């Protein structure tokens, strides 16, 4: 609960981890004794503001995920349910939003926070900033300023525009929204897809909000450690950071 609004999280773990180029799915890789998805789950469970969490994973992995959670030490009281994801990330978010529906009571419009389980270095500060951003601005996405200069390429792959570095932001999750707005945006997206009219390449939730509801998100404070584990070198970095924090 944050300023009278209930807060629900959707934790995404239904990807296939193709870019990792390793056997198995990255969300289940054991690192420092725990499957990857459990790091951000733990942070969300420990958050004083998060009231409930829905887990989204590939249908065939749902029993495995439930088994992992039933066998560890945690009680996972905040985990409301497990739902099968879809082919693309946005299908999985839609599945999470749909799944969440039956846990909502008639309270004030809740906040829904969407997080990629592939970002294990989530912190309470990031979660709180994200929720506050959504309460104040209806939509917020975590981000950090780019450390590198970014060049926009033309169709021949030659550099053309150079945006000012201070105006370039690297987008992360969590992304948090008014539940009613995000679910309406996703319903429009899925309807467009069903009717074969989907034209935009959708990569995150803020894009869906902007495209279908015209709401531009506030950028909440992310962190340079809140990386998305995408390729093998990211795992090495994670290993290093976890070693620092557990003193191994
Ligand atoms: N995700 C999901 N459903 C999908 C695709 C992605 O729930 N159909 C989740 C992933 O599990 C991950 C997050 O969205 O936590 C971000 O996606 P990404 O890092 O791209 O993970 P993958 O899609 O698994 O990896 P890749 O793109 O390399 O295959
Ligand atoms: Mg992907």
Describe the structure.
The chain is an alpha/beta fold. The chain has one domain: Spore Coat Polysaccharide Biosynthesis Protein SpsA, Chain A, CATH 3.90.550. It is 35% helix and 20% strand. It has helices at residues 37-46, 62-71, 89-101, 124-137, 179-194, 205-213, 232-246, and strands spanning 7-13, 30-31, 34-35, 52-57, 79-84, 111-116, 139-145, 169-178, 218-221. A seven-stranded mixed beta sheet has the order 5-4-1-6-8-7-9, sandwiched between helices. The chain has a two-stranded antiparallel ribbon with strand order 2-3. Strand 2 (30-31) and strand 3 form a beta hairpin. Helix 3 packs across helix 5 and helix 5 packs across helix 6. The longest helix is centred in the last third of the chain and has 16 residues, at 179-194. It is globular. The model has no long low-confidence stretch (mean pLDDT 95). Cytidine-5'-triphosphate binds at residues 12-19, 27, 56, 85-89, 91-92, 116-118, 228, 230.
Q: At CATH's second level, what is the architecture?
A: Alpha-Beta Complex
Summed up, the domain count is 1
- Ligand set: cytidine-5'-triphosphate, magnesium ion
CATH class: Alpha Beta
| Termini separation | 36 Å
Strand content: 15-25%
Q: What's the story with the biggest beta sheet?
A: 7 strands, mixed
Q: Mean pLDDT across all residues, rounded?
A: 95
- Alpha-beta classification: alpha/beta
The number of helical elements comes to 7
Low-confidence stretches: none
How is the CATH topology named?
Spore Coat Polysaccharide Biosynthesis Protein SpsA, Chain A
Order of helix and strand elements from N to C terminus: EEEHEHEHEHEEHHEH
Helix content: 25-40%
Backbone shape: globular
Based on DSSP secondary structure assignment, what is the total number of beta strands?
9
Query: Which homologous superfamily in CATH is the superfamily?
Result: Spore Coat Polysaccharide Biosynthesis Protein SpsA, Chain A
Radius of gyration, in angstroms, nearest whole number: 18 Å
Name the strands of the widest sheet in spatial order.
Answer: 5-4-1-6-8-7-9
